[in-house]
Amino acid sequence: MRVVYEDNHIIVVDKSPGEIVQGDKTGDEPLSEQVKEYIKEQYAKPGAVFLGVVHRLDRPVGGLVVFARTSKALSRLNAMFRDGQVQKTYWAIVPKVNDVPADWVRLEHWLVRNEKQNKSYAYDREVPGSKKAVLDYRVLSSTDHYSLAEVHLHTGRHHQIRCQLSKAGMPIKGDLKYGARRSNADGSISLLAHSISFVHPVSKEQITLESGIPTDSLWNALTSGITQNRK
């Protein structure tokens, strides 16, 4: 865990793949508890520490997670996420896209969540129990075998990016659940919650933050030219 931004009302951390945001049936210590301990030690706070979970990332995914430090920030952030006022950008490593589109591509599917399998299934038309899922993607760079896709979500469905990219023939590297041929050595999938932008729920300041980039050679090869160009 790396703290990217903090003030009296919010704290944003860079989650590592494998960490869970909130406690679940595994009993593993969640990221929320780690953040509480950080706040308790950093500010020498006696007693219980308030921390509101605003949104989540799948366990094998890394990147930015926003938490609320006050009830005022929590209620306002919940409304902002619900109303689409928070812009999140994801980066995903997928099999090489040979015919790279010149601009953004929109994917629209109908997703059905299977609770027992903890998996979603995508359909080209509405089916019973389905919810519409919409995202835009574009290809940023490629190597001989892989491409880096940038993704913007317009809806927030279960496993949406993983499911929709797989349906479009681009399963995320390491994501065995959604069609990848091999797992990643560390158990992660190559999906990163790379950046987030929103108006601060209390100060009304514009906040724009970026995650770190995974240190392996493939991420480095796909992002080096991009990150250099942005400096």
Q: Care to describe what's here?
A:
This protein is α+β, with helices and mostly antiparallel strands. 20% of the residues lie in helices and 34% in strands. Strands 1, 2, 3, 4, 5, 6, 7, 8, 9, 10 and 11 form an eleven-stranded mixed beta sheet that branches. A hairpin with a 3-residue loop joins strand 1 and strand 2. The two termini are 24 Å apart. The model has no long low-confidence stretch (mean pLDDT 94).
Q: What is the count of β-strands?
A: 11
Instruction: Please write the string of helix (H) and strand (E) elements.
Output: EEHEEHEEEEEHEEH
Largest sheet: 11 strands, mixed
Using only C-alpha atoms, the radius of gyration works out to 18 Å
Overall body shape: globular
- What is the typical, i.e. mean, pLDDT? 94
**Contiguous uncertain segments of 5+ residues:** none
Key attributes of the depicted protein:
single chain; 231 residues; alpha+beta; 4 helices; 20% helix
How are the SSEs ordered, and which strands pair?
Blueprint: E1 2-6, E2 10-15, H1 31-42, E3 52-53, E4 62-68, H2 71-82, E5 87-95, E6 105-114, E7 119-123, E8 131-142, E9 146-153, H3 160-167, E10 191-199, E11 206-210, H4 217-230
Parallel strand pairs: 4-10
Antiparallel strand pairs: 1-2, 2-4, 3-4, 5-9, 5-10, 6-7, 6-8, 8-9, 10-11
In short:
This protein has 231 residues and is α+β, with helices and mostly antiparallel strands. The protein contains 4 helices and 11 strands, in the order E-E-H-E-E-H-E-E-E-E-E-H-E-E-H. The longest helix has 14 residues, at 217-230.
